[in-house]
Fold this protein.
Amino acid sequence: MDNIDVLVLKALRDWRSAGQRALLATVVRTWGSSPRPVGSMMALREDGRAIGSVSGGCIEDDLIARHTHSLNQNQGIPDVPPQLVRYGVSADEAHRFGLPCGGTLELLLEFNPDAASLQELVIQLEAGSLVKRSVNCATGEASLQLAEQPDALEFDGHTLTNHLGPGYRMLLIGAGALAEYLATMALFNGFTVTVCDPREEYIGSWSVPQVSKVMDMPDDAVTAFKPDARSCIVALTHDPKLDDLALLEAVQSAAFYVGAIGSRRNNHARRERMMEHFGETEESLAKLRGPIGLYIGSKTPAEIAVSVMAEILAVKNAVPLPQAMSVEVAKHEQDIVMNEASTHCAIPEIVSPASAAQQP
């Protein structure tokens, strides 16, 4: 499944290549609370069809009403230079467009972008390239340039510069049931997913489509994966022979998330093995997460996958997680509560039948 940016750009390319009028709306600035982050995109065709999102829905409705051919027969989407549109300046307008209190956002609207340039952009994104797209706001002309590192969107009122692609990637070590649930969730969150398992009986029964399968040894698979800042690596086999070497490679990479399934005891033992046998330190293993996931009391593979995916997305989005959400911390606190409860439990006195008969 393509990430949302690629879906928006592919739809826009197809519409423009077919000669249909369309616009591209990009969130370029926000103030206060905003339902969508800077860089969010939406494509709108002149008949009202839209893909992508720049808000919770009300702003999209306004854009459709202003610019679709069916609601504006005399003009439709015009051939004009890009325009800036701001929503939520006043409290009344923020309420009208469903923005949070104090929320304001600014959009750049590109009218009828060049089909050939969009085609080139989509080809590069589908090839896994990182592309810097710059738009001249006076003319609407867009230029494309390959980039080495992703960077935040820049907008100075004259030029919009946006880094697009490559999409986020996930490498799963182990092809069991948990991996299938986690892969499914990652796909609909826009990740490209690869699963590695040298065990034929596991990889042979894999049932999730759109996932690349490899049977290399996991440490070799991590090396071949070439993790970057948009990559996450999750070990799920419970087998040290498979998980440990893969994790040793992963913690040295640029991956934004590296973690392994397992109990608190197993994760502690894993770290001890890595420090004793491979010369790792607490500092070198700082990136390694475990037990992975947010504590939601999950028991089934599906629930555990929700927990792990939630943590991955929080790390990806740079959301600080409270300690209470950590599996290790939450379970430790549960242990304390249970120990205290058992200490205060009254122990019943055991009385023999003969003694009971003698009591008044």
In short: Residues 36 and 55 are 5 Å apart (CA to CA). DSSP finds twelve helices and 15 strands in the chain. The first helix runs from residue 4 to 17.
